[in-house]
Write a structure and sequence with these properties.
alpha/beta, five-stranded parallel beta sheet
């Protein structure tokens, strides 16, 4: 059985990144390499929250980013997820925006995704926060997904 990867908003954004700074080019390259060469080894899912975030703003690759995630299964936002989000925010685990990082983590945790794939290294793929995330999820009786970047997953399953 394939392991499940929850794709957060930064993944389709970086797949179609147009900035030419070296770190942006590298993230785009690693994202495309994972998406094109490794993704099929996993069950890849996303959420309406990702689609909503991608639809916001005015940027040149919006339609391409939305098209990239369009075929992915959408995880439902069950009623039990909102209290999880509130707990993350109350425990200062995630920023106060209830429809951002806290929701992505809650969805991946509640639906027992093996991985949450992101380039958000401030709030999600941050080794300094992982123990706190693990403690809160354990307290809530939730699964703890691995919070990783595409670069970390390039070796495949």
């Amino acid at each position: 059985m394939k392991r499940t990867v929850y794709v957060e908003t930064t993944i389709p954004s970086f797949y179609h990144e147009v900035r030419d700074e070296p770190d942006m080019v590298a993230r785009r390259m690693w994202t495309r390499q994972w998406w094109n060469d490794v993704r099929e080894s996993y069950r890849v899912v996303t959420s309406a929250a990702v689609i909503d975030e991608l639809e916001q703003g005015d940027y040149p690759t919006k339609e391409k980013a939305l098209a990239l995630v369009e075929p992915l299964p959408i995880l439902p936002v069950e009623p039990e997820i909102l209290p999880i989000v509130e707990t993350y925010i109350r425990h200062h685990l995630m920023p106060r925006d209830p429809f951002g990082d806290a929701l992505h983590l809650a969805l991946a945790s509640y639906h027992k995704c093996d991985f949450l794939l992101t380039w958000n290294c401030s709030n999600l793929a941050n080794a300094n926060k992982f123990d706190h995330i693990r403690r809160i999820n354990t307290m809530l009786g939730l699964y703890v997904p691995l919070l990783v970047t595409p670069l970390e997953m390039l070796g495949g399953p």
